[in-house]
Amino acid sequence: MTVSTRLPVAGPAAVRRATLAVIRRDVRGFAALITLNALAALAGLAGPSLLGRIIDVVSAGAGTHAVDRLALAIVAAALAQLLLSRQARYVAHRFGERTSARIREQFADRALALPPTTVERAGAGDLTTRGTADVAAVGTALRDAAPDVFVALVQIVFVIGAIFVVQPLLGACGMIGMVGIWSGSRWYLRRARPGYLDEGAANSALAEVLAANASGARTVEALGLQERRLAAGEAAVEECRRTRERTLFLRNVFFPVVSSSYTVPVVVVLLAGGLLHTHGMVSLGSAVAAALFVRQLEPPLDTIVIWIDQLQSSGAAFARVEGLAEARQVPATRSAAPADDRIEVAGVRYAYEGRADVLHGIDLTIRPGERLAVVGPSGSGKTTLGRLLAGMDEPRTGTVTVGGVPIAGLDPEQLRRQVVLVTQEHHVFLGTLRDNLRIAAPGAADAELIAALASVGWSQELPAGLDTELGAGAHRLDGAQAQQLALARVVLADPHTVILDEATALLDPTAARHTERALAAVLAGRSVIAIAHRLHTAHDADRVAVMEDGRLTELGPHEELVAAGGPYAALWESWTR
Q1: What proportion of the chain, given as a percentage, has pLDDT over 90?
Q2: CB 94, CB 369: distance < 8 Å
Q3: How many angstroms separate the CA atoms of 375 and 343, rounded?
């Protein structure tokens, strides 16, 4: 099974569908936004039209009473436009905030539904950048840019319509004068989306490098990798600089071309209006009104130019955010309940990222209540097999089932009650001790949480008990306590099978002994699959599975395999020697 290491990016069609879906979820708010903006734009058209009317009535010899009446109408229209525009902006901001919140919630749901292997292969940097900078950019567009641009577009439509009503020929002249604006916008829009997608990918790559450097700082220092990691960081920064210079170039071409084109339609309409007036084809007031209408196009066009870059950037960000919908998700529907606790591995082959298989035709049965040790040299496929048994990966071919149901097809809640993988890595989440424990059992009472801690030998007195805040900037747990917390989660999840992948390897000897005693309490009555690098674990197991080069070469009790004189016997002799 080939798996891409990069999270997908939604195409233009998918982004359009997502945008329409967002609008459909708040149709009333969007309808109010359209209505108020349309009314404000209509009110704004009254000024130039009434001014042209004043010119015509003065030319016809009307008195001051008629002029005063038209002037009061202009003031009333301006006031109406102000009030409508203010209310429209208020409605637009509320619509944008509601929509932004929905997108954030949807992103969080999709991110949590991603299989762990998808996140691991893509890297935390890409997911983090999409969930922070990209979501924020979409929120800015919805709250600020989109309403302003929409208002501007409504104004432009009505102004152009008003010009054609005043004089169709002058309206056509105005449109001809806007060719430069259209050409510059078309050139920019064809290049902006790819440019901003490249910039977003470069930002994700830089975030991934920084996250890797921070999380692996001790390893970098211990192995003297500073220069190599510094070079990787500089390369990522250089790529960010290159992509940002590309989008900056696009802006530096687009903005001056469009800005310099504003006056062209006004000049064209004035010249054409003067020519038509001299031939008696249009009144002076109509020519002036048409010119004022064209001049009135500049503010909304300027608004679009100011925000269009933000919209292109936000559009690329939305494509990255919406791309999570195309990533492989954890099954949303419940699978059939497993018939029993028996785990079957049949004909399993597995490959990482389209490379050669690392597991070759594995067949294995784990009986309920059995203690199975999986041993073999480094790189033999032990950890990969453990991940398949824990449902974290799916085999390329073959099946891994529990009670006749594919393990990887179980939803997280079902899987947690079936199989739990305990590794040497354990995470303490930001929040209280209670929050950290209820990850495994959301409905557990405090008494159950305390009992789970006691069962793994927890003796730490925390300042506020279960309400103690854990994590950076709060109470910090040492390695042994964090491992005990992880084991308490296993007790609360109450799976029938526990997979151990060197759970005590990173602890000091004293802490490791305490944790192993805690493990004994956790594992009582459960099936245990121990991925063993230290063979004393295999000695105490019911059966031992020997892995070599991705193949299961031996399977049986410790004494039988030692007596057989095969690969396990050689490993045991080397270990005991």
Answers
A1: 7
A2: no
A3: 18
**Paired strand residues for 349:** 397
Identify the residue with better confidence: 65 or 357: 357
Confidence of residue 4 (pLDDT cuts 50, 70, 90): very low
- Phi and psi at 362, nearest 5°, equal -80, 130
pTM of the model: 0.59
Cα–Cα distance measured from residue 221 to residue 12, given in angstroms and rounded to the nearest whole number: 44
Contact 171, 160 (CB under 8 A): yes
**CATH code of the domain covering residue 515:** 3.40.50.300
Domain count, the chain: 2
**Mean pLDDT of all residues in 61-76:** 77
> Mind listing the pLDDT tens digit for each residue in 251-298?
888 888 777 776 777 777 777 777 777 777 777 777 777 777 777 777
How many whole angstroms separate alpha carbon 21 and alpha carbon 145? 19
Q: What are phi and psi of 368, to 5 degrees?
A: -55, 130
Taking the C-alpha atoms of residue 85 and residue 396, their distance in angstroms, rounded to an integer, is 59
* Residue tagged 């998918």 (tokens): 14
347 and 306 in a common domain: no
| Across 95-121, average pLDDT | 80
Identity of residue 230:
L
pLDDT band at residue 344, thresholds of 50, 70 and 90?
very high
Q: Are residues 351 and 244 in the same domain?
A: no
Burial class (CB in 10 A: 0-12, 13-18, 19+), 325: middle
75 half-sphere exposure, CB direction, 13 A CA radius? 6
* Segments forming the whole domain that contains residue 483: 343-576
